[in-house]
Structure formats: C-alpha cells, structure tokens
Amino acid sequence: MRLDKMISECGIASRSEVAKAARAGKITVDGAPVRHADVKVDPECQTVVYCGTPVVWRRFVWLMLNKPDGYISATEDGRGDPVVTDLLPAEYRKMGVFPCGRLDKHTLGLMLLTNDGTLSHRLLAPKSHVTKSYGFRVKFPLSQEDVASLEAGVDIGGYVTKPCQVTLTDEKEGIIAITEGKYHQIKLMMEAVHNQIVFLERLTFGPLSLDPALARGEWRELTEAEILQLTEAGRS
C-alpha cells in the first residue's frame, strides 16, 4: 500500500498533506525518514510515524452513536440541517464513515456508522432479516386488535409490512421489533391503525443494544467482539 493512501485512510491527513510532510522529513517508516509519499509500506507489520504520531492503520471502523433529535441520517444535507457525522471528530469523517441505515430526523437512539460498505449492505439487506427494536409512545391507546394487526402486517401505502413483534408497557407505550426498514415505516404502521407516533427511539440493531453510558450525541467505537457479532448477523 502507498504511504499516502495508508495515512489518508486513517483520517489523519490528506494525500497532499502527506506529500508535504514527507518532503519535510516528518514521516518515518520503521524509524527511517521517507521523503516520498508514494513509497510502498505494509501497514500490518511496519511502523509508520506521521509528524511524531504513530499511525494505527485500520481498513474499516465501526461506531455506535446515540442519535439526538433533529439530526439527519446522512453525511451532508443540502438544506443546511445538521447531519449525524457532524457529531464525530474530523478523523472519522476523513475516513469516509456513513450511517448504516437511516433514522428519521426526530427519531432518537442507536445508530451505527462505518466505512465498511460490504458489511453495511449485508446488514441492511432484506434477506438478512436483521431485527431492529424501538421504544415508542403513541398519541392514542393501542388495543389488542391494533397490536394483532401490527404484528400480522399492515398496508403502508401499497406495501404490506412483514410480521413484527409488539410488546406494550402500557396502553400508549411499548417496544416494536421489525426486520425491515422502509421509509417512515413505524410512523406509517401506527397511522395504519389510526394512531400517531409521538416518540421513537431505536434500542437495538441486530445483536447490539444502545450503550446506556452514551448520552444523546455521544459515540464510541465498537469493540472487536461487537464487530464480530455484526459480521455473524450479516451472514444469516
């Protein structure tokens, strides 16, 4: 791998910045200064130091974010609304992380971000049947008939949703677990039983649960064990 590619993929500096630093003798490989950014390096067995900072190369990164209200599930928004990647340090944005799936602007909770397009696609593919659960509150009481309709599948504008699981904690609140992610799906499902969502928070994504230590807007990297769990979920 080229030196400039390695460092830029880590989100530390752009390729032009790497070239400038190399010419200034500010990059070493295994302790020896290199003057050209296009030299070949093995990121898994060679030690690279950029401007005094060791470079830890990772091909992919996965983050868990507790999404706050009002943020768009995107890397940019033409209307000027804040996007979820605004909540991350610049190094992750430089690495090209993006949301794995979407949450509506006013939906809160667990969001995964990554630059691993292959695994992200597998986790979101309908055939993978990866379950996502949401805590919800609705405007009007839900009857047992409403719950039965939701669980069996309802028409949300020409599409009948797949079976899901609804667990009520009281007549207006509960948890709904679905295996698909149509646009505004839960909102439209509740409208199909003549109700209205007033609060929605994603609690789980596949095998992962929202870390209770994360306040709204906070994030952390996934552990290796959590990434392995996601990898297994994407194979199902």
Structure explained in plain terms:
This protein has 236 residues and is an alpha+beta fold. It folds into 3 domains: 3-54, RNA-binding S4 domain (Structural Genomics Hypothetical 15.5 Kd Protein In mrcA-pckA Intergenic Region, Chain A); 62-126 and 208-235, Pseudouridine synthase I, catalytic domain, N-terminal subdomain (Alpha-Beta Plaits, 2-Layer Sandwich), CATH 3.30.70.580; 131-205, Alpha-Beta Plaits, CATH 3.30.70.1560. Helices cover 25% and strands 25% of the residues. It is built from 7 helices and 13 strands. The chain has helices spanning 3-9, 15-23, 90-94, 117-124, 144-152, 185-192, 224-235; strands at residues 27-29, 32-33, 48-50, 53-54, 62-67, 98-99, 108-114, 132-138, 165-170, 173-178, 197-205, 208-209, 219-221. The strands form 2 sheets. Strands 5, 6, 7, 8, 9, 10, 11, 12 and 13 form a 9-stranded mixed β-sheet that branches. It has a 4-stranded antiparallel β-sheet with strand order 2-1-3-4. A hairpin with a 2-residue loop joins β3 (48-50) and β4. α1 packs across α2 and α4 (117-124) crosses α7. It is elongated, with a radius of gyration of 22 Å. The chain starts with a helix and ends with a helix.
Defining traits:
3 domains; elongated; 4-stranded antiparallel sheet; Alpha-Beta Plaits; Structural Genomics Hypothetical 15.5 Kd Protein In mrcA-pckA Intergenic Region, Chain A; 236 residues; 9-stranded mixed sheet; alpha+beta
Mean pLDDT, to the nearest integer, reads 93
Distance between the termini: 33 Å
The first-level CATH class of the largest domain is given as: Alpha Beta
Helix content: 10-25%
Total helices: the number is 7
Name the CATH architecture of the largest domain.
Answer: 2-Layer Sandwich
- The radius of gyration over CA amounts to 22 Å
Strand content: 15-25%
- Structural class from helices and strands? alpha+beta
